[in-house]
Amino acid sequence: MTTLLAFVRFCGIVARASLSNPPPVRRIVEEAHGIGVRSLPILLVVSAFVGTNLAVQGYNAFAPLGGERLIGMFVALAGVRELAPVMVAAMVAAKAGTEMASQIAVMRIGEQIDALEVMALSPHWFLVTPRLVGILLVIPALTMISIFTLVLCSYGVAVYQLGLDGNDFIQLAAATTRPVDLLSCAAKSLVFGAIICLVSCFYGFHTRPGPAGVGQATNAAVVVSAVSCAALNYVLSEVLFG
Amino acid sequence: MTTSTPDDPIIRLVDVHKRFGDLVVLDGVSMGIPRGLTTVLLGPSGTGKSVLIKHIVGLLEPDAGEVWVDDVEMGRASMKQRYAVRRRFGMMFQQGALFDNLTAGENVEFPLRYHRRMGAAERRRIAAEKLALVELPEVYDRPTSALSGGQRKRVSLARAIVLEPDVVLFDEPNSGLDPMTSGTVDALIQRMKEQLGVTFVVITHDIVQAVTVADWIGMLSGGHLVAYGPTETFLQSDHPTVRAFLSRKLPEGT
Fold first, then answer.
1. Which candidate, A130, A163, A103, places its Cα nearest to that of B99?
2. The complex's ipTM?
3. Which pTM value belongs to this model?
4. Chain centre distance of CA B136
């Protein structure tokens, strides 16, 4: 409970710092670029294999019932609406979130955050706001890339490995995924991005001294971010997709 | 307890108390830091010297008591007022607190980038000038990872003075340095004191450094300021802790 209150207070300070002064553009570009570049390779690999497995397991589930042509719909419902946003969140938390937490924790221990304060610069404004804006800029794009990769690889497995009709796959996937669904996925990813950034920075700011403290902060950042995103995904899906 | 009060203090601590859990670190410390002079706070490790200096710049807030910087009470000041006060301070941190993703020169430029409207060339010129002042003109483009402990401290000092502050705080400037480098840092502080004419506050457990650079010396022990006054007065203090500290640490004949 104390941690939750401290987190709410932290978010309040970040909001106030962000609104009182526009964040430095150069830092936002650096962060957006870093988060995108760091997360993209692993995201492509994981999305590709989640796509292939969705096709295979969808086939195993529907083929005995004679419904193997529904794989396109299955991939669109499970992969696009649910898996891709959560998967992107998990990967970004694992790559960018851990880096945010550990970098800020090391800065806390090395008195660099105190140095910013003494230089009359809000560390929340300087360290958190550019990361927050950066992640919000790139995470919807990462989600769309993940969706594209996932569907493409599902299609490849469905057509070339399982011998299904490619037109059926595309028609059913397209009929199930409306443009508004993609917008909803982007909205989900924005919420997840904000959570990952704020949680990771929070644990970095509140690290205990020493290398063990940095490890604990990093660990807590990725665990809390991932669990929060997974739980929130359920709520958001209910709200957005009914 | 033998403590004096300066005529024109720039910083005043009034009955400051601070504890962390059960550990009482500051137990009613009151003192004034004289304007334009060098004040050294002495004390064994773990006596709250760093905690005290962090109260001065508002990095920590007292559980009770007041910290005044001229006419601003830091505890009651808004964040905007605090930042305005902090712009009058520079601080040399114990481990340097340099930003590892920047070069030494970029670290010195850093405060200028956010507090002064000027072009990159002008920033570089001023930062180079400050690095020359701390006798490190050659390290401008060097990554901070390639600096020695003493160099990191001196770059930290160059960054601390780049905005030409009214007060410069030194947190254990000689800790972790060999005697030769410590002597160089002492000489540097002494020279900068003469050149800049600003208020220096130095916390250290090094009595040799204290005697070398101080106009005023105070000693913290057990959460109390047990002795405080001009250097000559302090050295004659008959407080047992001061005598024990001096007899153990001060070279013969000082």
1. A103
2. 0.88
3. 0.86
4. 20
